[in-house]
Amino acid sequence: MILLTQKLHLGVIIATIFLGLIACIPEDSPGIDRGVRIRSVHSTWIEEKFQTEIVNLGLEKLGYQVKPIKEIDYPPMYIAIANGDLDYTTTHSKKAHDRFFQNSGGTEKLERVGVLIPNTHSGYQIDKKTADKYNITNLEQLKEPEIAKLFDSDGNGKANLTGCNPGWGCELVIEHHLDTYELRDTVEHEQGEYIALIADTISRYEQGESVLYYIFNPHWLASELKLEEDAVWLEVPFTSLPKEHGSITEQGTSLDGKNLGFPVEDYQIVANKQFLADNPVAKRWFELVKIPLEDVSTESLRIKDGENKPEDIRRHAEEWVEQNQELFDGWIEEAKQAGD
């Protein structure tokens, strides 16, 4: 009897402690209430940490236990999310990354959510001085050997086009364009580490040479070689993309009346489908949060200028939240309602 009484007292004590701990958890913190941890990932492209930190700051505010951000390149990051080893990424471009999405399980395992960064765009640019002098406005003009030679940096008679990293997706579009627009004989695609290639391109431009390069926004390059001051867009003769991009019209590749040849699209969040089903508050947050393209470009330049440590980028994200506090808080309150 004494032993039974002691066990009952011990059970009461444990239950009291447990209830006390629950009472300490804020009622408006659905993540902690469920003990949910969130594991985010972006590619090894350091600029992508900024938007990931902003999204994570919101998840922390909502009470989720946010784990340190992982850095994994494409396509393994999609496979990890599909398998449930990670939960989400902020770096999904629907057209450029569609093959990663589909090959990792597609809509059975993954889900695209919200519009995080609207109107991202990319294409080909040349320096304005050369464009004005030779009246170059279209990529197709590089079929002419004399025009192509203007951008020859290695002496082989072909234009050197500064391209993008293998595996990003944009390199496949560039390769497709070289074939479709019949530019193989006069243009060569320089691939490798984009930052190193662009640094060389800028150096050549500063020395007065003609330059031809691929550019995407958001990125700091747009602040270094300013549109209509240092550089101009080259239009493409017509819209043509690899078949995995699906059917895209000229309107879908045009920006400000110019056909840039690449899809103008939004960066979205991609998350594990089961994770979203289990966490409606996180899903609603993903649907609401938006970051202007200009803010991401500004952050890219800060990183390029040396504020590139993880703690720097975390601070930048916190500053962005402070500068957009009213909007941020509104998203938080609306996301909480999804857990009611």
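Second entry:
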Amino acid sequence: MATGDVTDFTYRAWRLMPAGWCPALPGAAQNAPPPVLNAVLAGMAWGLAQVYAQQQFVEAQARIATAQGGFLDLWANDFFGQNLPRFTYEQDGPYRTRIEYNLTAPRGTVAGMTAMLTELTGAAPLIFEPANAAQVGGYGCLATPAAAGGTLGWGASYTDTTGVIGSLLLPDQVFITCSFPQSGFAVLGNLGGWGQLANDVAGLGYGYGSRATPAAGGGAFGGVDLNSIPGLVTEAYIYSQIAAWMPAGNIAWTYIT
């Protein structure tokens, strides 16, 4: 018996009945309503249990932390319009994480852009500002990156072939290199199919030992939680997020590897 289910409402109604409305039952039977009365009360309790379940569901949709399905999409639409859609195959858990992150994420800074792209793609981007003296070297600069103070790790100049050269002719512009996110379906592609036996790839029969042990290096077998699969992030979405994070009037030259 759980709070709000049919049994709970049945016993609540029974305990509220005046004494003497039904005959006393002997022994352990006194702890439950008589069979006929139980059937009548359970019928009414079923309706109350449905109302209670609906109330609990509605209350859950009033918070992002507990909203489900389309109601979570409505929260995203309320705060972000069409700028934060659910990815294809994206489950509620990952989508809720993205919504909560975007509510408080810092924007308009290199740190904010780095955090956003890391969260979105799973890898930190390389961000270079040509007009930022801290990120470039000088003519003949051979100092180590730590001593040079460069955030890209380069002490750059004409005499250092691994360096970068800054330019004040590119104000309010930034060069961003980020990686394309790895899809969780790449993991699924390495798991054996249902009962598959070809090429020693584990299937249901192999996985449970009803067949001979696969040869060395045989296939994998396992279950997958859909919440562990990230949504299918598109290049267009990455570009749109970078544009949303950039300060007004600034340009982000972006390369997605």
